[in-house]
Amino acid sequence: MLRIHFTGRDLGRIRIAARPDALWETVLSFHRLRDKRSAAVFGEWRRETRARLNGEGRLLASLVPARGYFPDFLTPPEGICGMEPAMEALRETPEERLRRDLGLLAAAGGHGPHGPAPRHEGLAAGRPRALGDLIAALRGYHRAAIAPYWPHIRAQIEADRAARGRALLDGGADRLLASLPPAMRWRPPVLEADYPVDRDLRLDGRGLLLLPSFFCRVTPVAFHDPELAPVLVYPVQHSGESAAPAPLRPCAAGVGSLGKLVGQTRSAVLRTIEGGCTTGELARRVGVSPASASQHASVLRDAGLVVTLRHGSAVLHTLTPLGAALLHGGADAPPPAAAAGLRAAATSGTGR
After folding, report:
1. d(C-alpha 150, C-alpha 19), whole Å
2. Whole-number Cα distances in Å, 170 to 163, 164, 268, 303, 350
3. Closest Cα to residue 29, out of 3, 4, 60?
4. Where does the pLDDT of residue 5 fall: very low under 50, low under 70, confident under 90, or very high at 90 and above?
5. Whole-angstrom Cα distance, residue 72 to residue 294?
6. Sheet of 221-222: strands edge to edge?
7. Is it the case that residue 214 has pLDDT exceeding 60?
8. Are strands 199-202 and 2-5 parallel, antiparallel or unpaired?
9. Residues 299-349: pLDDT tens digits?
10. What are phi and psi for residue 3, nearest 5 degrees?
11. Helices (H) and strands (E) in the chain, counts
């Protein structure tokens, strides 16, 4: 079990990640690629990804075991900004961290506490060629396993963020932490989480970044090094029609259903969902019955424009990137007022 100990200052410094982290999704998806569970969600993705790979998995398999420890340096904080900033940060990893993390990896694999395995010596020494090989492998794997599915991954993370932000606005940090998936239990002032080893993480006023992940499954993940900025990666809910990732097909996703999107009512539904709302709220704001609101949301979901996520006893609808682009005429959508409010509430006083 993992026990995360909060102080009053930490409760005021909780943040919710604004977008998926490119490297966390890359590394965690490599776990999903090698297991056989959750076939309904990941089965087709596994088949498509394996067909696109060209040997990138060999180096990654030596660094990311099927279970247990993998090096903290593989997921620098710059991953939240995208793959290229993450690659630059990885290239600049201090040799001391490379050697320490790779020594821990060797020890966890039963090779003794005497430093990195021989095959990782070049990487542990920070040699440019070894780092270049790692970066090339990560880039190649990301292109095959993550990039084609990024809009779907992003939509799921944004839907989860909307649910967590709503909990934060409704009931503060207590409600937010209590709203996390069942593998985590908020027992003030400690957040308990199912975890493969027994450990305590004391935040000591540093706060906590909550990072929802599409490819994290069942139990959350945290850095091994307690001195790093605290991050808790946890699984998003995969539910119903929006569960399985779909490849990016420009101008094709949802086209068969877009013909249904005719009329003022459904346009009003789309605008209302932009800020995130439950079915009941949608019905009241648009002036239709709950059954009609549910039916409109279902059509929009079938068209790839809406993600629906269960939030307590209700369901919460949010727009996908495609839905936002349609609503804003194909331009990058500005953050909706509600989302902007969630960001302000989530980052207030963090002082990062």
Report:
1. 11
2. 11, 10, 25, 30, 19
3. 60
4. very high
5. 43
6. 14-16, 208-213, 231-235, 221-222
7. yes
8. parallel
9. 888 877 888 887 667 788 888 877 777 776 554 444 433 333 333 333 333
10. -115, 120
11. 15, 11
In the predicted model, is pLDDT for residue 14 greater than 50?
yes
- Pull the structure tokens for residue 91: 């290239």
How many angstroms separate the CA atoms of 94 and 323, rounded? 42
> What are the residues whose beta carbons fall under 8 Å from the beta carbon of 315, sequence distance 6 or more?
278, 279, 308, 309
Residue 96 amino acid letter: E
Amino acid identity for residue 49 in this structure:
T
- Tokens coding 184: 């985590």
The Cα–Cα gap between 279 and 107 comes to 51
d(CA 96, CA 174): 38
Q: What is the per-residue pLDDT across 218-276, written as a single tens digit (0 to 9) for each?
A: 899 999 999 999 999 999 987 543 445 544 343 344 434 444 554 677 878 888 887 78
Please, are residues 141 and 60 in contact by the beta-carbon 8 Å criterion? yes
Peptide bond into 189 cis (omega under 30): yes
Rounded percentage of the chain residues whose pLDDT exceeds 70: 84
Q: How far apart are CA 28 and CA 26, in angstroms?
A: 6
Q: Which amino acid is at 209?
A: L
Q: Are 180 and 173 in contact (CB under 8 A)?
A: no
The residues near 127 (Cβ < 8 Å, ≥ 6 apart) are none
Strands annotated E in the chain:
2-5, 14-16, 184-187, 190-193, 199-202, 208-213, 221-222, 231-235, 277-278, 306-311, 314-319
**Residue-wise pLDDT tens digits, 102-159:** 999 998 875 656 678 888 999 999 999 999 999 999 999 999 999 989 888 888 888 8
Taking only Cα atoms into account, the Rg of the chain, rounded to an integer number of angstroms, comes to 21
What string of DSSP letters covers 23-57?
HHHHHHHHHHHH----HHHHHHHHHHHHHH--STH
